[in-house]
Amino acid sequence: LVCSSPLALSSKHHSPSSPLPNTSFLSNTKMVSVDELISQILSKTQKNITALQKSLESALSHNLNTNPSHLQRISPKNHSLGYLYLLFGMKEKNGFVECVEYLIRDMNLDQIRKGIFRFGQIMHAYAARLREAKQYERALRMIQFVIEIIRPSPEHLTPFHADYLMICLKAKNFRLASNLVDQKILDIQPELTGLTPTDMLLYYFYGGNVYVGLKQFVKAERFYDTGLTVPAFAQSAIMVEIFKRFVLVQLLNHGNFLGINKSASNIVHKHMKSFCSSYIDFANAFTDGDAEVLKNVAKEKKKEFAEDKNMGIINQCIEALSRRNIQKLTATYLTLSLDAVAKHINLAGAREAELILLRMIDHGEIAARINHKDGMVVFQEEQDNLNITDRVNYQINQCITLAQKLKNMDDTLASSHAYLARKNGLRDDVFGPKNEGKSKFGRVLDMFAK
Known about the structure:
The chain has helices at residues 6-10, 34-43, 49-61, 68-71, 80-87, 96-106, 109-114, 116-132, 136-150, 160-171, 174-181, 190-193, 197-213, 217-228, 237-254, 266-275, 277-288, 291-300, 302-307, 311-330, 338-344, 350-362, 388-414, 417-423, 440-449; strands at residues 335-337, 368-371, 376-379. By secondary structure, the chain is an all-alpha fold.
């Protein structure tokens, strides 16, 4: 099922099949009262916390119903796990947000890690409540605090990255979001962070959207590309939304749709284009270079593009085609009238052509001078960019910094039987028992296999 809107995903995306505690024993357990459950929580010690967790899971299976007065009887510092589970009984009630914040401020991290996937679910509900109330600053402050506590290092991805970015997008606070997405992610440890495949996909979807908002389309393409190349055994609505944006930013970056990365799963290559045929039609029209045809395609598909909340970037693509066509004129003409420019690239008139030319000159895309007296444009030789050397040196240093990490990752991946098996649609259990001490790639693959 393809979700009609990227933001629609945010309200229901956090119900994946997470690796939660084994609940096969629950069918033989009887329902206990909240007071009895609280007594169990207060009597349990760190040594028998596993038995307590089984009781708590049993209570959840019987539709636990709690209120703030129950939680006031428990100290989050001493009984974080019990406090966490009792929060499930009041997710839709008043006081839920305040109780979650009380847990965050005073939680026992070791206990929370025992129920880390349940903690992720509570935090997603917390983020959703504050998003609906438009209390963005409050949510961002607490979620950022949780990210810092839960992640083993800044290079680790957590389930809360996606919540943080989604709220930044709702608040249109791209500066805060850029601080998070600019941090390179090189590792995941679901057993410590509670990360699920859904969380991972949403991070790259929302992160790409952040870069689109900042008009950093190259970085946006990289995020969308990463989202499309995560291991997949079934089609995902989030991946479909990522693909739509991926097509559009490729048009902005390259002038045509280059296709899906070869590293993407077979199911992505096989079905994605059929799910997004309208975007492929738009890309084909863009590649043909006729602005009028492109506008007609956008008009025909406007309802679908609007439902996907992609009209903004669609309009940017339409303007980008006009700019590309103008750049082609600079290779042919030295002087041209504004009317002629408008005619060559199918614009409404000289005024529209002038506005586009002024923006291109301002952004350094072309070197030109407009003579308003006679309505002529003089295309000039581009000036040498004095900062070109500094930019190249910076990029070289970036490559050197990452080269060793990339080589190590590549060596690990090339020798991974699990990766090769799953890339071809097989499970790695044919290779025998899972080994201890898995690599970063092994952890990614295990997470998506669950």
